[in-house]
Amino acid sequence: MRTNLMLTAAAFVLQAGVAAAQTPAALTGQVSSAEEGNMEGVVVSAKKQGSTITVSVVTGKDGRYSFPASKLEPGNYTMTARAVGYDLDGAPTTMVASGKPAQAALKLKKTRDLAAQLTNAEWLMSMPGTDEQKKFLLNCNSCHSYQRIVNSAYDPKGFVEIFKLMAGFYPGATPERPQRLGGNGNRGDRLESRGGNVEKVAEWLSTVNLSKVKKHEYALKTLPRLTGKSTQVVVTEYDLPNPIIQPHDVILGADGMVWYSDFGQMFLGKMDPKTGKVTQYPIPMSKPDFPVGTLNLEMDKAGNLWVGVMYQASIVKFDPKTEKFQQWVMPKEWQTDNAQTGHLAVGSTHLDNKVWIKNSDQSHILRLDISTGKFEDFGNQQDPTTSRKLGTYGIHSDSKNNIYLLDFSNNGIGKLDAKTKAYTLYKTPTPMSRPRRGRVDAQDRLWFAEYGSDGIGMLDTKTGEMQEWKVPTKWSAPYDAAVDKYGYAWTGSMSTDRVARLDIKTGEVVEYPLPRSTNIRRVYIDDRTNPGVLWVGNNHGASIVKVEPLN
Ligand code: HEC
Asked: Distance (Å, rounded) from C-alpha 406 to C-alpha 400?
């Protein structure tokens, strides 16, 4: 039995090797360092001079990399490399010509500033403290990286002031564009409810930053580079035309056009993946004194795009044929300073003309009838056993336009029946899994990311059964999950610069490394080809990223 298994494994490796060898290469080489010799798992990137598109591959076992000819057209390329602990020696450029592959050997040298390279997950691994203490920082990664926190000099009192300051920022505020909330808007209640005792947290944080020391005295731990199957991937990154664009949700139209929502500006973006050309369509304002930016981007059955316009407390529909917006503004009675309509569901709106909307102020669920313009209020839902209110994040509809509410503040999945309005609460087996966002597939299974427990969850809405899987890297903080038609579920990470693909049948998860710092929200799979291709937005790096596994 054992020999059989080994034979199958060997045959698989051989096949993969043959497939890779058959693709003609445009550029190949080997990556090495004095410390390690030839290095596996290094992400090597090539960007044509003057282009906005960067292509990356990952070195295999002997440190070799190979860019397929289909990915690099002839021209002059600047090369970069990512391997934590190392910098690329020099700034090599390479001439790619058609016909014969170019060669570029890359040398890495030890970095002199390891702290500057650490991802959020690596900071959490490194800093002293218990997991319970560190979980507080999962509230602090959406607007900027942990570098700002660990490199600060705040004492406990200073941190308490910092928490208050942070609670007054719009969710898509960044240090580059620090939008404050409007009116009396404040998000402080959320931070406190998720983090426990504020003074204790502040005390602990002052032991992991630079308030008492000049340099971090704890050892900086790094994640081992990914190897094996994780190296069989091509990553293409498309720069967006302005560094303040935050591509929160990225989805594809039937024609392959890429659409994105911008978390900090009033634009719907469109990108042509063949050329990288971007068009921005301005979204109408409805509350001029309130922050600007959008979150959820969805496509209905007819191919119209729908956007949740956050603190403008409105939603819009965009027809790509006429390039016109239609807008629905929330009724006056819910127009509080905290009114926020980031999330909506339109997947089954063709059945009953109804759109589900979440108002984040009190996690109110609303339903809009687009034929009459009337809103129905479903209020907020509770856990019947404890009377705790659900802290709903993503909302997702099934084939009957029933809606599922992902309880980000605990481990619930609420369901509202479209016809009977009956409410049911399911719970994930893992406590505090913090379901964040997901998607209902063609079989009416709800796939979702477990932000608080580094997992992917699945609720079979027909049977009520749940299943859970873990992603391999601790502190991944996955935001979203989706499944393709070949049986793979994908998720991203707000803290590791890795994406993960789960084989549902075997439970195997393969992670793929990305070429630079990201912060990933929505995940979208284009499964028109096999294997499916992952598209994500680099929310903090103003780019769109395509991940193509080679098998
Ligand atoms: C909603 C967005 C948002 C969240 C969430 C957030 N921050 Fe910030 N943070 C900002 C912005 C914007 C700035 C830049 C402020 C400025 O320069 O005016 C900032 C700056 C900082 C700074 C540097 C301040 C300085 O003096 O330079 C620290 C420290 C910090 N944040 C800590 C935290 C901590 C701790 C958390 C989690 C409790 C957190 N942040 C969560 C938006 C956020």
From this structure: 18
383, 414 in Cβ contact below 8 A? no
8 A C-beta contact, residue 358 and residue 395: yes
Cis peptide bond upstream of 128, omega within 30: no
Mutate to test the pocket of ligand 1, among 134, 136, 143 (most ligand atoms within 8 A of CB): 143
Give the residue, by CA position, lying nearest to ligand 1 atom 36: 140
- Distance of alpha carbon 167 from alpha carbon 338, whole angstroms: 12
Of 144, 159, 295, the one to substitute when testing ligand 1's pocket (max ligand atoms within 8 A of C-beta) is 144
Token pair belonging to 487: 């049986």
Does ligand 1 have an atom closer than 6 angstroms to the CB of 178?
A: yes
Give dist(CA 82, CA 516) in Å, integer: 7
Ligand 1 atom nearest the C-alpha of 152 is 29
Mean pLDDT by 10 residues, the chain (551 residues): 39 42 86 98 98 98 97 97 97 92 97 98 98 96 97 97 95 96 77 70 97 96 98 98 98 98 98 97 96 98 98 98 98 94 98 98 95 96 95 98 97 98 98 98 98 98 98 98 98 98 98 98 97 98 98 91
> Measured in angstroms, how far is the CA atom of residue 234 from the centroid of ligand 1?
34
Instruction: Residue 220: name the closest of 294, 134, 128 by CA.
Output: 128
What one-letter code names the amino acid at 469? W
- What are 519's two structure tokens? 């912060």
Count, residues in the chain? 551
pLDDT at 190: 57
| Alpha carbon of 391 to ligand 1 centroid (Å) | 23
